[in-house]
Amino acid sequence: MSHASTDRTLAPSSVTMHSLYNYLELKENIFMEHLFFKQLESLNSLSQLAPVAQKMAFWVLSFQDLLELNVRRIQDGSLKKLLRLHQSEDAGHEEWFLHDLDVMNVEAPGIRSLYGEKNTPVRDTTYEILAKVFEARSDHERIAILLTIESAAKVFFSKISGFSERLEASDKLKYFSKKHLAAEESHDSLDNEMDELLAHMWMADDKKQVVHRIVDHVYINFSNMFDHFNTLLTIS
């Protein structure tokens, strides 16, 4: 097993990466209060969500590339193997997304739309998150990126599945549905292995500060992205 960047051989100098879950929980609780999710509770049709769904396309279609670029840079062999398994379980969700656009009678955005001015906020925030993949200098930082994206996704899919269930639309949807939420929550065996690995990745105080700044950066950009989505909701 390679220990090149995980620092598992270091003496306990502060805390393990597993402690990052506590910080992520704080961020999740803040993100959960975003106005977008509050407004979602007042919607009564899929058509009101449709403009948001269309503008989400750039992020959704870029996510697999972001994931691949991040996993490819993992140095520890065992960690990379685990994340490859996780990646395979998340593959194809962009097809679920495109399916749901069809259900909502929303045209999938073309090149001009994806790279047009109206999609600038989503592109900018996607690139800001992606930038951290290239800036990361250790597996601690790469794991922090992944865990933060998963943390924000957990909030989103719990809220959006509740929305589709309330509208009795969940059975005809895939991405914006209880099916996706169930898929996100079905990684139990992988999550247990991840927990074990993280419990042996020690962080000195300076490294802890670095990974916390990554969490902050990713969540700030998700918050900015959802600020934009909130302007697109059609409230009747």
UniProtKB/TrEMBL annotation:
Specify the domain of life of the species encoding this protein. Bacteria
Cite the InterPro entries for this sequence. Haem_Oase-like_multi-hlx
This chain belongs to the protein called: Iron-containing redox enzyme family protein
Say which species the protein is native to: Vasconcelosia minhoensis LEGE 07310
Supply the source organism's classification.
Answer: Bacteria, Bacillati, Cyanobacteriota, Cyanophyceae, Nodosilineales
